[in-house]
Hints:
single chain; two-stranded antiparallel ribbon; globular
Amino acid sequence: MTHRNVSEVQALFNPAFGAFLLATAVNTATKKAKLALPWPSAFLILPLVLPTDTRDSLPGKSTVTLSAWAHEHPHLQAAFAERAAALTAYTRTSLRTAVRHQAVDVTPGGLVCPGRPKPPSAAPGEEVAACARAAALVGRWLAVTDPPRAFTALGVRP
């Protein structure tokens, strides 16, 4: 692994970056659903957004449902449970960072975004922008998919 790749991995797994992606998804979900995002859904966001192969396979628009996408990509669905488990600690750390910096609030109904995260077009660099666009898409999916159905579609147990 080159120095460039090491610094890219470190940047992707920076809790502040994870917090930004979570806030982006939560903001999009709550705007679409007009409800807080159930907190278990937060654990689906980063495993869908961070791995390049998964992110690159996501549709450009949310007209494709989460269930349909998972059905069309069985190899990614099969790997999802392992990825989600591997990213659980990072998601927790990123969520704590988001709450500590008031990018996300925890309410009795779930997660909300008190502010508005920077849009993907304002992201510094194409990979960051691609991750932000993917987080927004996943937020739209999670707005219309209850957590048990989302977890089941991805082959994991809540």
